Amino acid sequence: MTSTTRGLALFFLLGTYLNPSATTPINGQRSQEDRRDYEVHDIGALDALIQLGELYDRPMGIISGNQTIAAIKVSARSRQATALEATSALVHQLPGYEWAEVDGVLVVRPHVLPSITNRMLAIVISRITAQNMDIDSLNFRLWMELQLQVDPESRTKGFAGIGHLRHYFDLGQIDLTNVRIDEVLNELVRRKKSAAWVIPPPPETLKGTPREKLWGIVFYSNPPLPLDRLCCLNQDSLR
What we know:
The chain is α/β, with parallel strands linked by helices. It is 28% helix and 26% strand.
């Protein structure tokens, strides 16, 4: 094992490298929540993040800059820590990544976004509405809105996608205007609470790319389960 590999698999004890500014939400108020024991050993960083979200039942958003976040192995032990403290300790092991709490959603992202991911997130949807619609349906609607912007001719071609009705969750009434892709995804998981959105490494183009290769929704389990046993992220998109 090389010194680099040993560094990536370093067993990290919470509190050693905490950055106080990184554990404070955007509104300046420290989150008041249960303290729990979080522990993972030699697993993929993405898997570790999802299991953290499951343990604390906190919605998350995760942007992959490349394949590293799924492949890099991490270990962490947090004793009686808040979700913010555990997240800070875990993200410290991911070179080039940062995190913030955005309106209740823990968002982990690269310091520098890949250009095509940045282009996708910069797209603004003028209005997206729904009433008594489930996550899967609105997720698909969001993908159609994106495709109409990058390829206006797609309106005449029709759309097809994959559904996951066994994870039906009624979002209630939604009426959002001038919102970015990540803002809509935040709203989806915030309402569900027990879920995370994940943007995989970027494809070569946005035009015509299936939604599953642009982003996915992961539904948590209680008790927590490994990522490969959860619905509904396309694992191939992470490689």
